[in-house]
Write a structure and sequence with these properties.
single chain, 210 residues, mainly beta, Sortase, Chain: A, eight-stranded mixed barrel, 8 strands, globular
Length: 210
């Protein structure tokens, strides 16, 4: 497969990344069950076309750091897996918040969607590492530092805010024929114990430097 493993892709289709952003029930660091329906307008999100400036795919190397200059993000990356209930893990709620790479997705720069999660808020600790993710605009730069010393540089394509109940599983996890990056956090109005929506950044590999 060009993206997630068969098992992980199936799990992803059953587990939306409902990132726990400082809400009471979400502070366990787990995600909840997903709705895999269409968008609220009934349409199916079409995959973006590859940029004419897209870079060649990179070899597998686990990411260790993420930088997003436009929103002043500079965070180490932890590795995330699946919780005992089959849901996707999210980073723990801590004072020293950091983002996490979903380890069943490709590493940044490999063909397929590499998925990175982070919190918008972290309870009593305040803003999370991805608090300002929705401010990103097309063309903004995202840098993923890999364990082998390479920096994979991505360019933002689109930023979407979607209701958690309508999380676009296929658009986030589905097979693509090029290296892409998905950044996910919470957004939209606050509810009793969290946020109503998810903010999703779609980006494409533009270059790589040693």
């Amino acid at each position: 497969m060009t993206s997630l493993s068969r098992r992980a892709c199936l799990t992803a289709a059953l587990a939306t990344l409902l990132v726990g952003c400082g809400g009471g029930s979400d502070e366990s660091g787990r995600t909840g069950p997903a709705s895999n329906g269409p968008r609220t307008d009934g349409s199916t999100p079409a995959p973006s076309r590859p940029s004419p400036n897209a870079a060649h795919a990179l070899a597998r190397s686990v990411p260790v750091r993420l930088r997003i200059p436009a929103v002043e993000v500079d965070t180490p990356l932890m590795r995330l897996g699946l919780a005992a209930d089959g849901s996707v893990q999210v980073p723990p709620i801590t004072a020293h918040d950091q983002a996490g790479w979903y380890g069943h997705s490709p590493t940044p720069g490999q063909v397929g969607p590499s998925v990175i999660l982070g919190h918008a808020t972290v309870g009593a600790y305040g803003d999370g590492v991805f608090h300002d993710l929705a401010r990103l605009r097309r063309g903004d730069r995202i840098e993923a530092r890999l364990g082998n010393g390479t920096t994979a540089e991505f360019s933002v394509d689109t930023v979407r805010t979607v209701a958690k109940a309508d999380f676009p599983t296929r658009a986030v996890y589905g097979d693509v024929n090029r290296p892409v990056l998905r950044l996910i956090t919470c957004g939209g109005p606050r509810t009793g114990d969290g946020y109503r929506d998810n903010v999703i950044v779609f980006a494409e590999l533009s270059s790589a430097t040693p």
